[in-house]
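### Sample
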Amino acid sequence: MDDQKFRCKWCLGFPEYIAYHDEEWGKPVWDDTIHFEFLILESAQAGLSWATILKKREGYRDAFADFDYKQVAEFPEGYVQELLQNPGIIRNELKIRAAINNAKRFMEVQQEFGSFSKYIWGFVGGKPIQNKLKIGDPSPATSPESDKLAKDMKKRGFKFLGSTTLYSHMQATGLFNDHLVECFRYKEVQQF
């Protein structure tokens, strides 16, 4: 990590956060498994900090079958009870059950659209939206695109995925490039 590089201020604080910013956040994602991972993590974040979720990411990876949505969709009740005792994740029953439900809905979307990626990228016209945020600009919490996506996903039966959560997902997976234009990653993520 080059400490001389200018970064978005939200990521400064601990090494995992900086690494997440430098290597992942905002990089366009077309892989369904990565989209599913972020949907689980983003829905788990509701009411918590992203730093808390990043610190538990490996716990989620272990508990949620490496984010294999096919396996998660089949988690039996007994495993739900085990997850409620697992200190490596957020032990919120509604969020755990939402992840299982969302795995099922995720596969329904795949069947209809060919992939979840194709579905979600359709909300931004198939290419990243470049917001061109500068130092001092307010960071958006939602967008018309995330509003439409949230409404559609709710209609499809997804849980714990409102517009704010989905906007975060869209930022993380590169549907929006919300790196500050001064940030070294702004131009880098445009290359993907």
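Residues 14-190 form a domain with the Endonuclease III; domain 1 fold (CATH 1.10.340.30). This sample (DNA-3-methyladenine glycosylase I) is used throughout the tutorial notebook.
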